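Ticket 4471: requesting a sanity check on a complex prediction with heme C. Repro inputs:
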Amino acid sequence: MPFPSKTISLIALSIGTVLGSTPAVAQVPPGRMLASQCAQCHGTNGQGPGFEELAGKSANDLYGDLREMKLRPVEGIMDRQARGYTDQQLRLIADYLSTVTPSGNAD
Ligand code: HEC
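Returned structure tokens:
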């Protein structure tokens, strides 16, 4: 045997730990996952650069804006974006973005 059995059981234990642990992706808050769709125009985590910095805004203001854009007749880009989400998803996005530190990178 190339390795002492103690080493082998340690290796087996490590593999078990890796396989048994929750995948990293499952630990990402759902609001953050959903808000990743906003990054192409508002920057990663809404921190810019891009249109309107979303990071650190009040959750209720963000949610209110998103609901308004979702419900009003389609005029601009955001009205289409907002329609892609349920109200519950918009709430998760708004709650998440409100927890992010603003960067001052956006216009
Ligand atoms: C394709 C580009 C694009 C994407 C993707 C996008 N936005 Fe926007 N967003 C804009 C633009 C452009 C504006 C500013 C002009 C406007 O309101 O249409 C804006 C403005 C906003 C505003 C401010 C609205 C106001 O009343 O001033 C909020 C809030 C917002 N976006 C949230 C989001 C969220 C949350 C997402 C992801 C779910 C998202 N945006 C995805 C382009 C985008």
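Notes from triage: The chain has seven helices and no strands. Leaving this open until the requester confirms.
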